[in-house]
Amino acid sequence: MAEQGVLRRWKRFFPAFASIHAAIEAAEPGISRREFRDATDKVVAMLCNATDDEAVAEELRVVLDGMMVEALLTLELVPAMPKMLASTDLAQDVGALRNHPSERVRSLAIGIVRGWRASVKDELLKAAAAMEKLSQAMEPDEADDHHAKILQPSPPKKTANTSRSQPPFPKKQSARPVVGGSRVTTTAKIDPPPEQRRRSGGARSR
Q: GO CC terms on record (predicted)?
């Protein structure tokens, strides 16, 4: 069927309408694309309900092509917005129009994508130049101090002395074996009092 052939060819390009309308409204908050949205939806509905008439389907295709051309011409006047290009499907949807059956639509889509690429590249060059200026704005002394602080070695970390002095162990007293019965026991040596030592010494001298 003729209308089904047109729908099949146009189906993958329908998302471009929504993306383009949203981009235009974001760039110009005072502009509303509601009227164009309603008109596009009406033509698509007519195409879906069309009878098996090749002439009618072709007329509706021409109308859709004209609507897309109008949308692209308006988008061409909108400055490139890197944030929108990065956060939406606008670049992808417009890029898909480079394969559109209409030569006019293809030409406009290619020109818009090339313009976006050039604009974003220019913004990147400006950002790089601005960073270079900011780097040069630093005074030489400040730069030297900054590098000196970076290259200066860090002071050694102080570690707490956890070792504690241990009290000296008491000296062991000498012990001598004492024979008692059938087993040997060890007792500590106990010196007798001085009076007993004198008596013992006198007894041995006698």
A: nucleus
